[in-house]
Amino acid sequence: MLVTELSRQQCHDFLARLGFGRLACARDNQPYIVPVYFAFEPDRLYGFATMGQKIEWMRSNPLVSVEADEVHSHMAWTSVVVRGRYEEYPDTPEYSKVRQQAQSVLEKRSLWWQTGFAAAQTRGKFDRDLPVFYSIHIEEISGHQASPDPVESDIARSQSSRPAA
Hints:
The protein is of the alpha+beta class. The protein has one domain: Electron Transport, Fmn-binding Protein, Chain A (Pnp Oxidase, Chain A), CATH 2.30.110.
């Protein structure tokens, strides 16, 4: 297997296409990771949630990471990691434009709202009037991609074509 580093532009293209990953945050030296839908812009990821542990933890410690991956096989995968800073967009006049921008970018993705409302229903606190729009400002981004090594692929093909003993 060959693992190569992705360029910044390749990482951007991947995040713009994928839109789903895992958000990691921490509080009191305890990590927490959850699946999230996001919408990508070159300097940030926009997200939507309802009140819960993820939002509470990001409010107390805005340093977060997002990991997105796509796995085709053991030897063919792509993974991008973002380190960044959480910023919440409250429903106030001063954040009106950026909330509208976040919602507009998120609405380009199907089911962008689903995980936030599903989590709220699970907690028994479903309230359509309490959406939380936020962004993760990208401070660092990196990615890797694996592909089959031609030599390994040839060996695997020759071994699979041998008759059983």
